[in-house]
Amino acid sequence: EAQVTQNPRYLITVTGKKLTVTCSQNMNHEYMSWYRQDPGLGLRQIYYSMNVEVTDKGDVPEGYKVSRKEKRNFPLILESPSPNQTSLYFCASTPTGDTEAFFGQGTRLTVV
Amino acid sequence: DAKTTQPTSMDCAEGRAANLPCNHSTISGNEYVYWYRQIHSQGPQYIIHGLKNNETNEMASLIITEDRKSSTLILPHATLRDTAVYYCIVRLRNFNKFYFGSGTKLNVKP
Question: Which of A81, B49, B52, B78 would bridge A111 by S-S if both were Cys, CB 3.0 to 4.6 A apart?
């Protein structure tokens, strides 16, 4: 089954403790992205990747890092999480061409 | 600045057509219009997309005005399961960047 898998689905952590949210897709898509969703703000793009070793900032990249060492994986790294990064996070993958993006089921992160 | 503007919420009677409007007055010739929906806090689900022609698939129809400054998503026979937040999105062609708006909460009522 074609899917985008995020882990963990839920995470509560403390300020400053480094964490990684993993994202994996099994569709051999070139494009992958990370979004955060906050009440009243819709989804905002954090980082995106056009291919292996090619990443770029989205609209809200501060406080986040990403890497794309292999096509299927696109982890989101929070080196020093802060409470304002409490949010619902989505990973998405897209094939080349003008087709739809496939979204993961989300990771709800709480930073206390 | 937001690339799309949508009403905050709309109601629709079950079995009737739901028409969801979206303004994207600054859209460029290289940008597509996409529609997604999100049920509760699940991952957004793709519905339909188009560049300038009207499009139809098994889920919905997309009507884009001739000047491309606005569009309407039509769910022909809304059901209770169509209750969701619907997002109108602009995407630069061949580019991995989607601009989400705030969405429209569609309430389908019995």
Answer: A81
